[in-house]
Every structure is written in C-alpha cells, then in structure tokens.
Amino acid sequence: MRNRFTQKQELILLALARFQMLTYDHIKQLYIDKHSSNIHKALRPLRETRRKLVDAVYIVDAHDNKVGIKKELMFYLTEKGANFLIDELEYPPEKIKRPKGRIDLLTSDSHHRKQMISCVIELFASAEKKQILWHDFYFEKNRNRRKTRIDLDKGYIEADMFFLLEREKNYLFGLEYERKPDVKRIVDKIYKYVHAIAQGQPTTYLVSQGKMKFQRDMAVLYIFEDQVRMESVIDRLATDPIFKKYENYFFFKSYDEVRRGDFFEGWLNVYKQRVSMF
After folding, report:
1. pTM for this structure?
2. Which sequence spans correspond to the domains of the chain?
3. CATH architecture designation of domain 1-106
4. First to last CA, the chain
5. If you write DSSP's letter for every residue of 130-164 in order, what string do you get?
6. Can you give the pLDDT of all 278 residues of the chain as single tens digits?
C-alpha cells in the first residue's frame, strides 16, 4: 500500500501523527506545500471512502460567536491511518496522536486549538537537534481524564500542553496559550502552578506515570494572543512578593513573536527582560 502514496502525502500523515489535527494553514506552516489546491489534491486519495486514512471536520472560529458556522476543515488520522503508519512506515504506535472520535473535534475552543497547534509547530521547528521526547495536549485523554491534568492537595490543574525536551539534563515544560480577556483568571491559574510547584508537581505525577525517570525542574511558558494583556499579567505578578520565589519558573511571549522567531529565544521574565530557554 505504501507505493500508492507520494512523499508529500506521507509527510501529511506523519505530521498528523505528531500534532493530532491540522488545517490547510498548518500544512502550509510545515512547508509541506504552500498552495491550498496542491494540499487538497494530496489529501483527496487519503480521504477516499474505501480506505480512509484521514478524515476531517469543519471547525468554528470562536471570534464569530455563532456555533455551527462552517469555517475551515481540520484534518486528523483515522484508525486505518494510524495502522498504515505503524505497518508501512514503522512509526512507533505510542507516539501516534489521533482523536478517539469526531466528537473530540466538534468543540467551542477550536480557535484555541488551532492557535496552540501553530505554536507547537514552531516549537518543533526550533527544537532541531534538541529532541522532544514526548508531548501531551490538553485535548488528549486517557479514558475520561485529560493527559495534562495534575491533581493537587486541593483541586487540580490542567496545562494546555506538557513536553519533555532532551538536553544534557532533560527539561520539562508546561505550555499555556491565553486568548481570553480576564487577567484575574489568568493570574489565578499561574498561582495554581505555583501551588503545584511547591508540592513537587507536576514532576512527581509524571514520574509516577512513567513519563519521566526522575524528578526534574521545569518552566511554564505562557503565550498570549494579546500583547497588552500579557504585560498586564506580568505587571501584576512583578509586584507580589509571594511570586518572587517562583519567578524563574515562568516566562512570557506573544503569539506574533512565537510565529516570527526562534521558539526558545526572546522570552520575557517577570521583569520584562528578554531571556533564552537555554
């Protein structure tokens, strides 16, 4: 069956296994092809009814506030697509990301997911030789539990994403994408992270799940759709003496900056100084 597909089609399948879901814009961002017509042509055989390796659903742009408006297609691997990668391309089955069903994609946070995936594409592009050992999204689940949920002594926290980066000493990152206007809600979640870090989380939980061999330090990266809102959050944190002990765990960047440059460079600390993650 492998001979039926072009290199471009195989690249699309491999990208879907890594990012779980992709739009035309994402596929262009990955430099698989820059023309929608060519992408459509490449996807057509993968979506044929007889042996469907890829399926799609229309997603709603939350900016319209009208649920049900068809905006754009989001593509994802089917079970047959996953099996093709395993059997024909020898792709590790544990690394394949695909939704359990269409219902996972029909959601009001489609815009958030789309922007998040764009950021993660930039992350992988910048990682180069620094291998990302694993990554989990908030929209992935083990049974009914989100993969990024961390239980605390009071309540829990759910990151948008966790990923482990291979370095001299492997390093854990949490990733958050913020687009809502409520600064207080954003700050409250940051303090949930503070509470988690004070308890040795999320590393303790991830070690218990076999995701990491040892407890490691971590950083939480906040990406903001709105620059002004980001600065408001930083200003509020900078004046709080309670936060000072944890200031080296948190870094901030705008979405536009993530899309323009090296993912790991130019993050703002709580003093609005530009720093590198290495």
Report:
1. 0.91
2. 1-106, 109-278
3. Orthogonal Bundle (1.10)
4. 43
5. S-EEEEEETT-EETTEETTEEE-SSSEEE-SEEEE
6. 455 789 999 999 999 999 999 999 999 999 999 999 999 999 999 998 788 999 998 887 655 545 445 578 999 999 999 999 999 999 999 999 998 765 555 567 888 999 999 999 999 999 876 789 999 999 998 888 899 999 988 889 999 999 999 877 788 999 999 998 899 999 999 999 999 999 888 888 888 888 887 766 789 999 999 999 999 999 999 999 999 999 999 999 999 999 998 999 999 999 999 999 88
